[in-house]
Amino acid sequence: AQSVTQLDSHVSVSEGTPVLLRCNYSSSYSPSLFWYVQHPNKGLQLLLKYTSAATLVKGINGFEAEFKKSETSFHLTKPSAHMSDAAEYFCVVTAAGSGTYKYIFGTGTRLKVLA
Amino acid sequence: DGGITQSPKYLFRKEGQNVTLSCEQNLNHDAMYWYRQDPGQGLRLIYYSQIVNDFQKGDIAEGYSVSREKKESFPLTVTSAQKNPTAFYLCASSRGSQETQYFGPGTRLLVL
User: Fold this and answer.
1) CB contact, 8 Å: A83 with chain B?
2) How confident is the model at residue A99 (pLDDT cuts 50, 70, 90)?
3) Measuring CA to CA, how many Å separate A62 from each of A48, A76, A97?
4) Cα B48–A92–A25 angle (5° rounding)?
């Protein structure tokens, strides 16, 4: 079975400082992993995805994530936060080859950026 | 512009009433999905469709119904059997069932 845990429900950072949003996953198969961002009352926008190629994945808006199999983690980082990064972020795991292909969502991390 | 549209943005339901949420995509995607989002929770899958004229129940299908008569359209009906319909509903689509999903802007359903 697959599952995903976002370790922080809320994260606050100052503008210009690094961002770290943590995600751990569990999967019986080779996982695909995604980060999506959601601004208030909007749909989800894909930030980046890992699908068994390079373990360091670069996404849009300066975000990147590193797949660490030994730690079953897929943390999202950004070197310098911008006010426009304030939003909710969802980590998603899925698994191809298990007979189904289903998105399993984490419960989200709300990022607050302080001026 | 290619994308996914959902309408209306806000929808009000009276008790005992069925309401239908629209989802249209012009991405030529085969697969489409409906999710429900509640505060503090991740998205939960209601229904999905991998091809036209075929759809499957997700994790929380009770009180909902769908149809997939056209490739570009996947409407969701919230029936009177759904006793707690207040939520944000998101539609998504993907090129195939094992491809990345792309989301629409959502519909917020409120009960009068």
Assistant:
1) no
2) low
3) 10, 11, 31
4) 130
